[in-house]
Design a protein that fits this description.
alpha/beta, 2 domains, four-stranded parallel β-sheet, 18 strands
Length: 435
């Protein structure tokens, strides 16, 4: 491990380290590694999956265009290194943990990737290193998985090793709010820990908001995504209310958003997915069980989110009933299956549950998604995307995700269109990116 500091012109006392290891080269770790490398730091990108490392080297990864350009440039430089060898984290001045924190089938935290990464980090930790946990997890994760075992090894936190939490704020596919333009929250175990970690995080973004502890940083991330989950649940509920009055919920939302204070627009949709909103609030609810603290609003919001795919399927069924048809034997194409526009990610996508529910009701289901050639819903049956869709081949088009830059004019030739995004328009689908 080197102790050299790179002079970068940042404020005095905040010079950046010369080498940083990033554990986990997924949707967070890879853009993080690219951001650090662009800042002049030697990066050691570690991922235990050789297939992922090979995909990165081949450029076959889901990134925004700017990050693809950075990757193409970085791959040819000795200062950007990819490996499956976890021992190499011992060579770096600082180490960031960027592994996924998902849920098991029972909506309980799946901590295996995180605990494994932290165990390795503790085992290879060297005096003088700065260790930063960026994965979203329960309050106290940093203390339990890093601080306590490091002390058991004989380290003195804040003196010979430095530990902090700075949860990621990466929104995949978002070209408006990039990592460099998004402030980061940072909390160290000690003031010195915070100062050392800030040297690393300021390479990724100049806007760093420090808090008094890792626990405060961890709670901040849980609050952020729980806030979004509650408000999305409310937006979906208002969409159902508006339907009863034959009012466009998007028109109402846009009108309410003209108020310059006290309102933030959230839009209804077919459900939520991805790595944050369906998962993070459950980390909070899981932890609250041990404290005998209740969170009825959060619990109800997450129940409503889980139930959203059923509501979408019921809407299809009601639409068919209104024209004298049933679900059995009806040919339904789900348009878009990723959890959000512009990405290839189908993790926790509501489209998976929607497809399963439609099949259970007897529909003949296919899908069209130009970014996802094959798909395996939870029923285990592999599906292939319709390559050249013809609206006349389907009785119903269920709009789930609309990707920018693709032609959806064919949808107008379907006999029935059910827009679960509430904002689909074939005429401007090439230009518009629904939130």
């Amino acid at each position: 491990m080197t102790q050299a500091i790179v002079e970068t012109g940042v404020p005095a006392g905040l010079e950046r380290f010369s080498s940083v290891a990033v554990i986990g080269m997924g949707y967070v770790g890879l853009p993080t590694a690219l951001g650090l490398h662009e800042g002049g730091i030697t990066v050691i990108g570690i991922d235990r999956d050789q297939r992922r490392v090979d995909a990165i080297r081949a450029g076959d990864v889901d990134l925004i265009e700017a990050d693809h350009r950075r990757l193409e440039k970085s791959l040819y430089q000795e200062t950007f290194q990819l490996t499956t060898d976890g021992a190499r984290m011992a060579e770096a001045d600082a180490v960031l943990v960027c592994v996924p924190t998902g849920l098991d089938p029972y909506l309980l935290p799946d901590l295996r990737p995180l605990s494994g990464a932290c165990e390795a980090l503790v085992a290879y930790a060297q005096p003088g290193q700065t260790l930063i946990l960026t994965s979203t997890s329960y309050v106290g994760t940093c203390s339990q998985m890093l601080v306590k075992p490091l002390r058991a090894r004989g380290f003195t936190i804040g003196e010979d090793i430095f530990v902090a939490s700075s949860p990621e704020r990466i929104d995949p596919g978002n070209v408006t709010h990039t990592q460099a333009e998004t402030p980061r929250v940072l909390g160290g175990v000690t003031a010195k820990c915070t100062s050392m970690a800030e040297r690393v995080i300021r390479t990724l973004t100049p806007a760093v908001h420090t808090v008094n502890s890792p626990e405060a940083a961890e709670m901040t991330k849980l609050y952020e995504n729980t806030f979004r989950a509650v408000n999305i649940s409310l937006a979906n509920e208002f969409a159902e209310i508006c339907a009863g009055f034959d009012i466009d919920p998007v028109e109402v939302t846009n009108a309410a958003a003209t108020k310059p204070y006290g309102f933030m627009p959230f839009y209804p949709g077919p459900g939520v997915g991805g790595h944050c909103i369906p998962c993070d609030p459950h980390y909070l609810l899981w932890q609250l069980r041990s404290t005998q603290t209740t969170a009825p609003l959060v619990t109800q919001a997450m129940n409503a989110i889980a139930d959203r795919p059923r509501q979408v399927v019921d809407r299809v069924l009601n639409t068919l009933s209104a024209i004298g048809k049933g679900m059995a034997g009806t040919r339904i194409v789900v348009v878009g299956v990723t959890y959000k526009p512009g990405v290839q990610d189908v993790r926790a996508s509501s489209a998976l549950d929607i497809i399963d529910l439609l099949v259970e009701k007897g529909a003949k289901v296919g899908y069209y998604d130009p970014l996802v050639p094959t798909l395996q819903p939870s029923n285990g049956t592999w599906l292939e995307s319709t390559v050249q869709p013809n609206g006349g081949d389907w009785d119903v088009a269920l709009i789930h995700t609309v990707h920018p830059g693709h032609d959806y004019e064919w949808v107008t030739h379907c006999e029935t269109v059910v827009d679960a995004t509430y904002r689909f328009s074939p005429a401007d689908s090439r230009m518009r990116l629904p939130a």
